[in-house]
Write a structure and sequence with these properties.
107 residues; elongated; mainly alpha
């Protein structure tokens, strides 16, 4: 819910009353990735969701998930998903244009 804000493992550890070292070890043992990797994964998945709906431009989606530099966001997105945000948007539009609309299915 707060992906647009700076999120640090130290803050997460403090929220649950654990030392940073113990929190990081416990988190990785439980989830399989570090807290920083988890936050990054959450941000990327939310960005993908925002971009595929067609309601957000790249810069706006980037800011909503905590990236203030759209160029940096694009680079991280491309590294994460293997496609640029612009390509993802184009793919989502192509897929949605071939789906039948509900109104045409009722006829």
């Amino acid at each position: 819910a707060k992906l647009a804000y700076e999120i640090h493992a130290e803050d997460m550890a403090r929220c649950v009353g654990l030392s940073l070292q113990y929190f990081n070890a416990l988190f990785k043992a439980t989830v399989g990735i570090t807290p920083a990797e988890f936050i990054h994964e959450c941000r990327m998945q939310k960005a993908k969701e925002l971009l595929t709906t067609g309601r957000h431009k790249i810069g706006a989606a980037a800011r909503l998930v905590g990236f203030w530099d759209a160029g940096y966001f694009t680079a991280r997105f491309r590294t994460h998903f293997g496609v640029s945000p612009r390509t993802l948007i184009a793919q989502a539009r192509a897929i949605s244009s071939v789906r039948p609309s509900f109104s045409s299915e009722r006829r």
